[in-house]
Amino acid sequence: xxxxxxxxxNTLVLATFFVLLFTHVLAQNVFADDDLTSLSxxxxxxxxxxxxxxxxQKLIDAAFAIYVITQEDIRRSGATNIPDALRRVPGIxxxxxxxxxxxxxxxxxxxxxxxxxxxxxxxxxxYTPLFSGVYWDVQDTLLTRTISDDSEFAGYNxxxxxxxxxSESSNLELQLYYDRTERExxxxxxxxxxxxxxxxxxxxxGKRQDMMWGLGYRLTHDNIxxxxxxxxNPESRDMPLYSGFVHDExxxxxxxxxxxxxxxxxxxxxxxxxxxxxxxxxxxxRKRHSTWLSWSRAVRTPSRGxxxxxxxxxxxxxxxxxxxxxxxxxxxxxxxxxxxxxYRFAPSGDLSxxxxxxxxxxxxxxxxxxGTPFLETLPTPAHIVSxxxxxxxxxxxxxxxxxxxxxxxxxxSYSYQQILMHLNKxxxxxxxxTVEGSTPHNMFFIxxxxxxxxxxxxxLSPCYTDTLPSVDVDSYVELDARLAWKPFENLEISLxxxxxxxxxxxxxxxxxxxxxxxxxxxxxxxx
Length: 527
Hints:
The protein is mainly β and 527 residues long. 8% of the residues lie in helices and 55% in strands.
């Protein structure tokens, strides 16, 4: 790590603790002013939410697909972790692989190493630069704990925000963040320090334009303890990320028609400058009705895995050669062009409906291309290595629709998607196209909630998930149930059953690249 980066790290840590000690920390709770448990559906559509637009706005005014999970939804679902809470979100596929591993993605291309989903918690990104995915097993804990018999996680973080409001339409916000994580398994030890600073400024430009711009800097420093299975070259690396954005919301017709344009610019250590523009048009033909059309370009920049990794995966029994996967310093960013059309309405206080259709066009997707076998003398005995190298030799299309309905005591969602992958003519990859079959074509969910006499609550949640042919998982229907009694306001006794229709069944199986070991999810009943 050079002296400039070291000085920045020290300055950022000191600034973080200074702000914590001597300023008023503003917790950004988007529901702080609303008790969502008491709101009608009509009120819920008008509640303020904060999303990728980086500003509070009413749900009915959001020009993109969005689904709100309230505290009451989580309580009545019986979910005990973040993945289980996400299971009923339209378009989100949540699949349990084993005791501490999930495959989670949005709108297709799922795997254990799923890296097409950006996850923000308290406004901070929680992906790991090791493989651009998320360690889901540690996102709902702040304390050191044992994750499984062969993997341990420890760490801490500090997050603070400072906000100054000039007027109702103008403010400044500064966020400082530091995170320390230590993760160890039988195949890998990873120590990581992350330093992050984000600044944004919102203001009115004339009578019809709401402008926002911002700058950010993130520095990630890691130390990897290599093993025979996993190794990284170099073992330690600094990965700075510079970013900026501009966002302009233009009112074309008051309370009727709004255009939003903007772009994010970033500079990373692997591919340099990346530009990600977007445009959204929102039309509100009537009160409590809105429709939108959007286009955006996004990139997934390379991770340490695509650049620096060597993974000794298996032994080819036919030749005796060691099969190894290698990163490539020439690996480029994966690119997405996304198109979305949606309609949201709440025609009455008891009914709310969201419908979204989308088409995602992917370019430069990851493939594993065979290289020239070579002789390796260490570790002994000497052996032949059959290499497969990370390349950008595939593109693809994902299209589908999502619908969410909230009516009286019923919540329901339906998702449909189709995935078509296309290898380049120069590709010799034989496995990457199988991602087509790792996401279900159809997913369906209903939750009925009943408030019975005597302060008794009953929740029933059936769901259906379609076949996953590429990972050999059959379609399944499941049922979760919750029965609760509240003898006093602050006391609840509940009996929760999950996956009640089958004693056990698989939801996902280990991937081609990394073998995580798969188990079947079992029927579970607990208080």
